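User: Predict the complex.
Assistant: Input components as received:
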Amino acid sequence: MELKRLAVPAVTALLVLATGCTGATVQGRPGASGVRDPLFPRAGNGGYQVEHYALDLAYDPADGQLHGTAVITARAEQGLSSFNLDLSGLKVEGVDVQGAGARFNRTGTELTVRPAKDLKKGEVFRTTVDYGGRPKPVVDPDGSREGWITTGDGAVAVGEPVGSMGWFPGNHHPSDKASYDVTVTVPDGYEAVSNGQLRSRREVGDGRTEFAWHSPEPMASYLATVAIGKFKVTTGRTPSGVAVYDAVAPGEAAGSEAALKRLPEIVEWGGAKFGPYPFGTAGSIVMPARTLAYALETQTKPVYSGAPDELLVLHELAHQWFGNSVSPKTWKDMWLNEGFATYAEWLWSEDHGGVSAQRRFEAFLAGDTSVDDQAGGDWAAFPPAVPAGPDHVSDAPVYYRGAMVLHRIRQEVGDERFFDLLRGWAADHRYGNASTEDFTAYAERRTGHDLKKVWDVWLYGQGRPKA
Ligand code: ARG
Ligand code: ZN
C-alpha cells in the first residue's frame, strides 16, 4: 500500500491558488503532470527540467528483483509546491528533496512529490527516490513491449516511446534531455552494460560486481538502457578515435561478427555524410534472439534482439545523429528519427554498390517495395508528420514515406544543397530537440528553396502522392 500523505496539502495548495492568493508565503504551485504531447499526453512532467540522473541499481537475475536509488538533479522552471515524476509499477520506499524527507503519492504512472519546502523558480534541486520490486514490461499502444524485459538469464531495459518509466522514475519525455551516471551491481560472472563509457568495474564483495557507466552528453530518457547477462565483450576504436564497446550474447556472437566488424567504418561513414559522430563512445548490445520484437537505437549502444545485419547496424547508428543528438520535440515528430535513419540506409546502399536512392524512390512510388525487405505495411497509409495515433508512431509511413520526403527535397535542391542540409541540421540542433515545423523552416532557409509543395503533398498530405 502506498502512503497517501500528499492528498490534503495538495488540495489546500490548489484552493489557495484558486482563490487568487498572491501572498508572499505562496511561492510554488504544482508542476503539470504531463507536457501535453499530442500523442502521449501523460508523458513527461511540467515545471522543471532534469540536468542529471544518477541511477544506482542492483539486480539479481535469479529472482528478477531490482533495487534502485535515483538521484535526479533538476532546475525548477517555476515556483513548485509539488512536481511529478513518471514511474510504472515498482514500490517507492522513500523520497527526499534537498536532503529532507518529502511527501509523495502515486496515481497510475504519476509519482507526485511534495518537498518540505517549496522550490523557487530557477532553483537547482536534488531529488532522491528509493524504489524497488520486480519490474514489469510496459505495453505501449501498438502492443509492443518496453521497459524492463527479462531474458532467461538477465534483462534489458529499452524505452521507446514510454518504457523508461518501467525501470526508473524520471521526466519521461524526449523534450527533457539530461546527462546520466548509471551504476549497476550484479552477481559476479554477469556483465552490466549501459550507455556511454565504462568508468569502473569492481568486485564489491558478497559475490557482486559493480559497473559504473557515464554518459556526459544530453540523452532523452527513452534512449537510456541497461543490459544484464553473460556477454562476450569486445572493445576497440574507430579510425577517428571513438571508443567502441560491443557486448554480445554468446549464442549470437558468430552471427553478429560480420556486421559488428563494420561498425567502426559505419561510424566514420556517418561522420563524413552527416558531420562528426555526436558522442564519445559507440558500440552495441546484442541480446539473445527474440528478446524483443525490434532493435532500438539506445544512445551510444543500440540494442539488438539477436544478431543484426549490416543495414540494421547502420540504421541504429544513423539514429545517433538523427533522434539521439537531434531529438524529436514530441512523439508526432518521430519521422525526423525514422525517415532520416531509413534514408541513411538508402544512402549507404547507393554508396556501397546497391540500388540508388532514386531507383528505390521510384520503385516505392510504383508500389514495389521488394527493393526493401523491411518495408512491411503501406508507406502511403498516412502522412508521416501526422501519425494516425500513438499506436502508429512505428508504422511504415513514418519510416518509408519519411525517407521519401528527404528524397523529394534532394530532387528539388540537388545533391550539394541536400547534403549541406543534412549536416547543417545535425550541427545546428546538436544535443537539442526539434519539431517538424523547425525542420521545414530550416530546410527552406538552408537550401534557399521554396519546398511548400513537398511539405503539402509528402509530409502533411492525405492520400498517395503521385510524384
Ligand atoms: N526506433 C526503433 C528503430 O527504428 C524501433 C522501435 C520500435 N518500437 C516499438 N515500440 N514499436 O530502430
Ligand atoms: Zn529507426
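The two ends are 59 Å apart (CA to CA).
Let me know if you want any component modeled separately.
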